[in-house]
Amino acid sequence: MPTHARSATLLSALRPQNQDRLYDFYRDLRTADELYFDHHVNAWVATGHAVVSSTAGDPRFSSVRYPDIEAVSEELRPLARVLSRQMLYSDAPDHARLRTLLSRAFTPRAVAALRERVSDAVDLIISRVALTGRTDIVADLARPLPLAVICDLLGVPEEDRGMLSAWSDPVAAAIGDSRLGPEESRAASDSMEHMLTYLRQLLSREDGPPAPHTLRALLATGAQNPDQDFNELLANCALLLIAGHETTTHFIGNATLALLEHPEAASQLRDRPELIPAAIEELLRYDSPVQLMLRRARHDLNLAGRSLTAGQTVLLVCGAANRDPAAFSDPDVLDFDRPPGGHVAFGYGPHFCLGAALARLEGAIVLEALLTRLPEGRLAGPPPRWQRSLNFRGLESLEIAFTPA
């Protein structure tokens, strides 16, 4: 193993100077070694597309994040118990059972039925800011839109949505950072408990039947099944709420920034709106909102010529895999004519993102609105700053100026 790979650590990605040049940092790691053991995080780190994609769906690996909950800090343990019930951190057969139950809310037909709702929400937000000539894309659009959509599916009243968003943030921070202090861990656990208490009350309401085909309807049906663990349902409801808006928020912000930094690409989409579906895939590849997947070796095995022992963790760096020149020609170029397929921004294998179609729909509607209704958009205010997270890639804010309507 090259000396550089042995001394390098993925934790350096958290340094501000590396956040601004993240994909250069990944390139250095990948060039040194596509799979190496990082002693600072006590895990194997995979940066090459081939090893990332193959390992993500390899049945020799487990997706369980906390194999020994009692080994987790006391402050984080309540959160770890909830996460361990979620399908994202489950293996077969539990994963398939939970995914089958919830997937009915994300069928092509169900997602298509949301188009009008998403379009109306985007139109309302854009109309509010179009007259001002200035907006923070993250605060005004990227955060409230996905939250509104997932809360609609759950039947969450509008007045409660800010509260759920506030609870979501510490949990997302905990998922994205395995080196939390006691205060952050306790805040994440407390926030999850508040969210579960609220969702338990929401799903127990008797103010009329929920709208059909919504998440609330599916969860209510599951709750009436004596064979279904209600706490498990609540845990996965919380997962969908957090994942349903955190990742799409980051995608909208990242995609907007990429277009502002590549005005020729933005002009291409204005002239050729039929390219928007391809642009969504390329923007996901170019700056993925989810940067890591975690897997654990079920037994001693060989991976890409390396010997792994049972229980060892492999961190699959999706962001690095999506810039691998072995999989994508000129990977650092934003190219909407690139052949489709191949990126791992939504994961790979059985754990492929359940809400991928909804995220694509929201992204397409947002891009079209930004390109047509906020013309001549340009960066304004302070330079964009990235949230501090290994797992998620998202902006704290993104202020832009444009020609008022």
Structure in a nutshell:
This protein has 405 residues and is α+β, with helices and mostly antiparallel strands.
Topology:
Layout: H1 3-7, H2 16-19, H3 22-32, E1 35-38, E2 43-46, H4 49-56, E3 61-62, H5 77-83, H6 94-103, H7 108-112, H8 115-130, E4 134-136, H9 137-142, H10 144-154, H11 161-176, H12 182-203, H13 215-223, H14 230-261, H15 263-271, H16 276-286, E5 292-297, E6 301-303, E7 306-308, E8 313-317, H17 318-321, H18 356-373, E9 378-379, E10 385-386, E11 395-397, E12 399-401
Parallel strand pairs: 2-8
Antiparallel strand pairs: 1-2, 3-5, 4-12, 5-8, 6-7, 9-12, 10-11
* Tally of strands: 12
What's the name of the CATH homologous superfamily?
Cytochrome P450
Class from helix and strand fractions: alpha+beta
Strand order of the largest sheet: 1-2-8-5-3
Strand content: 5-15%
Shape: globular
**Overall pLDDT:** 91
Query: What's the SSE pattern?
Result: HHHEEHEHHHHEHHHHHHHHEEEEHHEEEE
Question: Can you count the helices?
Answer: 18
CATH topology: Cytochrome p450
Main sheet summary: 5 strands, mixed
Binned, the helix content reads 40-55%
CATH architecture: Orthogonal Bundle
Gyration radius, rounded: 21 Å
- Unreliable spans are 1-5
The domain tally reads 1
The termini sit apart by: 58 Å
What is the CATH class name? Mainly Alpha
Please give a handful of descriptors for the protein shown.
five-stranded mixed β-sheet, Cytochrome p450, alpha+beta, disordered N terminus
Describe this structure in words.
The protein is of the alpha+beta class and 405 residues long. It has one domain (3-401): Cytochrome P450 (Cytochrome p450, Orthogonal Bundle), CATH 1.10.630. The protein has 18 helices and twelve strands. Strand 1 (35-38) and strand 2 (43-46) form a beta hairpin. Helix 13 runs antiparallel to helix 14 and helix 14 (230-261) packs parallel to helix 18 (356-373). Residues 1-5 have low confidence and may be disordered.
